[in-house]
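Shipment paperwork, digital attachment
Item: protein structure file
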Amino acid sequence: MDKTVIIIDDDKNIAKIASIALSRIGKWQVIVANSSQTGLNLCIEHKPDCVLLDIMMPNMSGLELFQALKADDICSNIPVIFMTAKVQKHEISNYLTLGVKGVITKPFDPLKLNNQVLDILNLNAVKI
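Attachment content:
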């Protein structure tokens, strides 16, 4: 099964590390956007299986982009996972209340990133 993820992060190094980890370990097709507007356009164009989204970005924050995705007919059902350093208990609770699928803490371990994403998406089914 080909899985597509769009990584939206203004930090090009973080986006590159996440991209390499997911494409090599998880065999994801990875698309990277370094701005919220580009990310929104790519989500509409590609309708990915998942979006990894940074919260703190210039111009349009990750929270604003998340709301734009949820308001768009094409993108409203795409699972969004926040990747952020803002992970105090009340912040994570607020994100989940908004409808975010999950939160991955920055800095993340590239070797564990694929499994974290699969766990959040419930794709790590036990195979007997």
